[in-house]
Backbone:
């Protein structure tokens, strides 16, 4: 089967959406399918064509940016050629260009499967409101032209304003989750490198407004009062994050205030990330809105025995709720977040489950098999 996967940003860009799409693409290619990723050349230094882990990656040059979106004048030409030569189109939303590609699929009689990763919420301002309306319209058109729409969880599907319009098309496929193994030597070296002497709270994300970093910062005084040597380790991009410069500047005084208890690790490779999860007593996903719909890092940490504290957002609350490996707190409530983190640090055994229990619900292999079955069903029906 020839599968075309389309999304705005792909690797080396780091986000939950790009990690999801990368795992899907590599997993399908490993099962013998011909997979092409159509994406933006968001960084001009990236090649327009390359093969990554058995996946053909085609990047379209960017002429201009609108907030976090991109304008690619030659996208339509390449999209037409690829739609003609592939059997099924897998589009990942939010994506401004999705309706054009979905329309090509409809005209050519190719199944179009949308994967809806999250709702889009831009910062305040009249211009961003206009952009938001345009993207919502584009996503709605893509939904109408699609054959099926994939959501991570039933919880998110029933609460998303977008997905409620396409309930008859929705298929629930849990996201692909995987993590490398680590060992005691790596963990000890990691602890020594960062001089970790007390409890460790982890956060793995981009430094972005929707991630709720300030909620964790505001929770710190209560946690430090109990554990003065507590350390927050932030794994992920934190400098010059696209569209988040003002947010980082706003939080800079708080980072300076808590410099003894807060450490930025930057982007980690897969082995380092596994060691990071293992070192943490608990991780947290204090996201503020539905631009976060699950939080893959929660399950990655759980596979290594580390529980999570999540915001009470549809989808995001599902990993701790389904596994029992964590707690859920009200959105934006720093006091409740502090209490939940302290509870887990004080009684870690209460939140332990076996790796097999977690993998029974979430794994990359289960996700790839579900997509493969869906694609096969739709192409056979066609």
Residues:
């Amino acid at each position: 089967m020839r599968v075309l996967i389309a999304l705005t940003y792909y690797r080396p860009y780091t986000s939950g959406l790009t990690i999801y799409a990368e795992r899907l693409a590599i997993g399908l290619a490993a099962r013998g399918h011909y997979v092409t990723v159509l994406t933006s050349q968001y960084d001009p230094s990236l090649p327009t064509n390359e093969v990554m882990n058995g996946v053909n990656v085609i990047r379209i040059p960017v002429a201009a940016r609108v907030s976090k979106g991109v304008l690619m004048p030659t996208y339509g030409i390449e999209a037409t050629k690829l739609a003609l030569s592939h059997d099924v189109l897998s589009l990942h939303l939010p994506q401004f260009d999705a309706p054009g590609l979905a329309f090509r699929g409809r005209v050519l009689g190719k199944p179009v499967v949308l994967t809806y990763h999250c709702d889009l919420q831009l910062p305040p301002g009249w211009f961003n409101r206009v952009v938001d309306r345009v993207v919502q319209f584009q996503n709605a058109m893509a939904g109408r032209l699609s054959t099926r729409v994939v959501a991570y969880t039933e919880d998110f599907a029933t609460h998303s304003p977008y997905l409620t319009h396409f309930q008859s098309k929705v298929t629930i496929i849990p996201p692909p989750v995987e993590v490398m193994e680590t060992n005691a030597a790596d963990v000890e070296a990691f602890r020594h490198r960062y001089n970790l002497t007390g409890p460790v709270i982890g956060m793995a994300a981009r430094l972005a407004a929707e991630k709720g970093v300030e909620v964790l910062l505001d929770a710190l005084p209560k946690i430090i009062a109990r554990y003065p040597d507590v350390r927050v380790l932030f794994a992920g991009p934190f400098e010059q994050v696209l569209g988040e410069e003002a947010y980082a500047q706003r939080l800079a005084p708080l980072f300076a205030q808590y410099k003894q208890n807060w450490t930025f690790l930057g982007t980690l490779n897969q082995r380092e990330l596994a060691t990071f999860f293992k070192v943490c007593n608990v991780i947290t996903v204090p996201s503020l809105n539905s631009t976060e719909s699950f939080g893959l890092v929660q399950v990655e940490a759980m596979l290594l025995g580390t529980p999570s504290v999540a915001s009470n957002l549809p989808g995001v609350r599902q990993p701790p709720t389904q596994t029992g490996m964590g707690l859920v707190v009200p959105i934006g409530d720093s006091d409740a977040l502090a209490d939940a983190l302290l509870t887990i640090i004080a009684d870690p055994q209460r939140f332990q489950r076996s790796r097999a229990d977690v993998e029974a619900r979430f794994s990359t292999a289960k996700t790839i098999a579900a997509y493969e079955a869906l694609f096969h069903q739709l192409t056979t029906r066609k």
